Amino acid sequence: MKDKLNAILLEINPKGNIGYKDNFLTRGYETTAGSNVLKGYISHYSATVVDLFEKNGFVTKAKFNCDAWAHGSSGENSDFGAVKNPWNNAYTPGGSSSGSSAAVASNYTKYATGTDTGGSIRLPAAFTNSSAIKPTYGAISRYGIVAMASSTDCPSLIAQNVKDVEVLFKIVSREDKKDANTFSSKRSLRGGQFKPGSLKIGLPKEYFIEGLDREVSEAVRQARQVLTEDGYKIENVSLPHTKYGIAVYYLIMPVEVASNLARYDGVRYGQARSFFGEEAERRIILGTFTSSAGYSAKYYQKAAKVRTLIIQDFDQVFKKVDVLLTPVSPTPPFKLGEKANDPLKMYLSDVLTVNTSLAGLPSLALSCGFTKKNLPIGMQFVGPRWSEPVLFSVGKRYQELTDWHKRKPSI
Amino acid sequence: MAQAETEYLVFVLAIMNQMYTPVIGLEIHVELATRSKMFCGCPADHFGKEPNIQTCPVCLGLPGALPVPNKKAIEWTILLGLALNCRINRSSKFDRKHYFYPDLPKGYQISQYDEPIASGGSLKLKIDEERTIGIERVHLEEDTGKLLHNTVNGEKVTLVDFNRSGVALVEIVTEPDIHSATEAKEFAQELQRIIRHLGISDCDMEKGSMRLEANISIAESGKRKEESELPAYKVEVKNLNSFRFLERAINYEIERQTALLKAGRKPRQETRGFVEKLNATRTQRYKETAADYRYFPEPDIPPLEFSNEFIDNIRAKLPQLPQDIAKQLENKYGIRSSYARLVAADKELTDYVLAVIDEAKKARMKTDSLVGLIINQKIDWHKVKPEQLVTEMMKTKAAQVSDDTTLEQWVKQAVADLPKVVADYKAGKKAAIGVLIGKVAALSNGSADASVVKKILEEKLSR
User: Fold this and answer.
1) What's the whole-model pTM score?
2) Which of A120, A291, A349, A357 is flagged as catalytic?
3) Domains within chain B, CATH numbers bracketed
4) Rounded-to-integer distance, Cα A34 and Cα A95, Å
5) Cross-chain residue pair A262–B106, CB shorter than 8 Å
6) Is A243 an active-site residue?
7) What is the CATH number of domain A8-406?
8) Quick check: A142 and B301 CB within 8 A?
9) C-alpha Rg value of chain A to the nearest Å
10) How many angstroms away from the CA of B291 is the closest CA of chain A?
11) Which of A76, A140, A339, B90 could make a disulfide contact with A155, Cβ separation 3.0–4.6 Å?
12) CB-based contacts of B455-459 (< 8 A; 24+ apart in sequence)
């Protein structure tokens, strides 16, 4: 089925109320992960997340388009065509969960899932005036979701406001005996009352860098003002290793990608390896190179060490503040085709989201304004592991104080 | 001969004998007998099952499936590590080992690379002299599927059976401390005995639950700077489906490689397979460099951390091992060494024999001959209870007189009747004692305990 935005790959039940990014397996239905390699592949079982939603009365409506294998920041790497932003069809709705954000923003569905490996739910939420949580790594089971980079893959949730996101999160955030990373002795969500006056919000200076779009920085500044006036304490903080995030992410992620895509070897699934798109090929080659003998120590293992430093930065900062506030993307939504032929430029769209992915931290993305061209601008609240309740409380409070999230695109 | 000449000769002989020293290391895979597979809940017992009935998304490597490690398999690997005197690494992890093969559904095998569960162990062997073979590592991984080469509708095809895919597999790697086929065979057999004793695998080579690979090279002693220096090549031999093949393949390789070296040629670094029909090894794969498996830590499984308490609990479950049992049977119960080793090799038999010894002690019976009866299969020990066996023996051998006074009488008479035989014995013909024992047997109508008679005779005649 072709919809106007090209967000829907498969409609399962028009009366349903939740849609899944097409890398979630849905028993009996096709799952392509946006790639021709899996075209025609019928899921043998359902993802744990899908099972949990169905058990709790949700009805599956559709499967959503996305960048092939969730590789991308704009949705343009889908083998089934790019998704259009409902706010302006010439723009990207963000990627890789492009269909999910477009569907939620255009009110095709109120609830959708996505995945976030380096920013793939947050960028789409920010670009479409939606709200989304990339949870603590391990909070939501990855079982039954086509793997991209296993150590940062997070099943994620997107809706029209934070309140709804929290409802979804409470249903699917649980231990799953089929995903060893959901077992944790530290698995306990932060409890208690989170009154504005009791919470400290940190602004990491490395996230307000040169090159940050002026409209984005102004929107986040205004959000800060709203929160300050409400009684939140704001403090400037520093995460010194931030600048290495992109390099580390683009060394570690492709290694895991190359490994996870090895099973699509042409022996079992629909199509041959020649059906892999350019971006997947690029990551397979890059990951194979950086993990091969003689190079692994120089690249992959070194990156793993710097990753530890990035995690330590956050550990330090969360001794001082409860939550961090940063923009999601250095720019407002960009045009379809604008970065598609420049992978490096595209990779930099993730510059403000990859570090939290590498550290496995929860991050709530929501809108905080619009550009002069009436395109949404997003911000994110980041907390320590298992601090989702804190993020939701701040997010909900912000949406009580503002009404950006109530704006709808005219379609 | 002058001393210098003697020394020279010894030196030449040493060179002739030791110029070519086989350097052998073994890699042994053992399928653990856990109920479920290594990373999923499918039954692990795959032997003889209809193809592909014991599979699930995890062991088929379907999109989205994730591995969850089997705790029992980890405990058993630790247990084996302890039995092999290894250090149990307090933190360990799984890694992905990448290679392409149709029986490997994920394109990588979950194995362990630089942090195996156990390392640095040793195993003592008793052949002619005592030898200690170092154990480099014991690690845990998953088995692969199986390729079946069939003809379907007249067409030759290769089919894949994934029943075996994901079964827990332990790999034991020795140091290159083995120097002969006999040693290699004895090591493998001792390992089999230990593992069976631990009850963690049936180690059945026919079913493929124990698989042997040997790395063989020849060191030219004159050319090595140090004793520890290894040859610059090694030949890996696979397809060793029995201890006999292991022995034959190694002997074949020693001859083949030595001949090449003697001809001034260096054997090629390669993988060879043992071909039963030819009783020889043949080249399988030839590669100049080692394969690049692109190992990296398996992100789907959190690192393993073992507390001292966890390891101590496993250590407490470590049973007495065959070598210790044999020693105990010999030293404590006077069972002859050959019997003791045979008994100790079988855990069930060990338990049985210990029970028999217990009963025999109560009945003041001699244990060595009783064990002999069991070993020589004079009785079916699976059917006869220990106390029953001892009672039976007491009955049938009721007439078997072993009390010294009665025996002494008969011995005296035998000695008196056969003075010539006694003279022969005293003159050094030790075999003559047999005639005297025979005489006592005749006098007692076969009721005399021959071993006691022998002892009394020896004592009497040595005076």
Assistant:
1) 0.88
2) A120
3) 13-315 (no CATH), 320-396 (no CATH), 404-462 (1.10.10.410)
4) 12
5) yes
6) no
7) 3.90.1300.10
8) no
9) 19
10) 9
11) A140
12) B456/B404, B456/B407, B456/B408, B456/B411, B457/B411, B457/B414, B457/B415, B457/B433, B458/B433
* B106-160 confidence digits (pLDDT tens): 999 999 999 999 999 999 998 878 899 999 999 999 999 999 999 999 999 999 9
Give per-residue pLDDT as tens, B8-53.
666 665 555 557 899 999 999 999 999 999 999 999 999 999 999 9
Copy the structure tokens of residue A97: 């969960």
When the pLDDT of each residue in chain A is averaged and rounded to a whole number, the result is 95
Interface of A with B in 40-69 (CB under 8 A): 41, 44-45, 47
Residues B451-460: contacts with CB within 8 Å, 24+ apart?
B451/B366, B451/B369, B452/B402, B452/B404, B452/B407, B453/B407, B453/B410, B453/B411, B456/B404, B456/B407, B456/B408, B456/B411, B457/B411, B457/B414, B457/B415, B457/B433, B458/B433, B460/B411, B460/B415
The first and second tokens of residue B407, run together, are 């025996």
Q: Give Cβ neighbours of residue A22 (< 8 Å, ≥ 6 apart).
A: A9, A10, A31, A32, A33, A34, A63, A64, A65, A66, A99
In a mutagenesis test of the B interface, which of A29, A69, A137, A267 is the best target, namely the one with the most B β-carbons within 10 Å? A267
Nearest to A330 by CA among A207, A237, A203: A207
Amino acid at A408: K
Q: Is A21 a catalytic residue?
A: yes
ipTM entry: 0.95
Q: Please name the member of A23, A269, A300 whose beta carbon is closest to the beta carbon of B296.
A: A300
Count of alpha carbons within 13 Å of A392, Cβ hemisphere only? 24
Question: How is chain A split into domains, by residue range?
Answer: 8-406
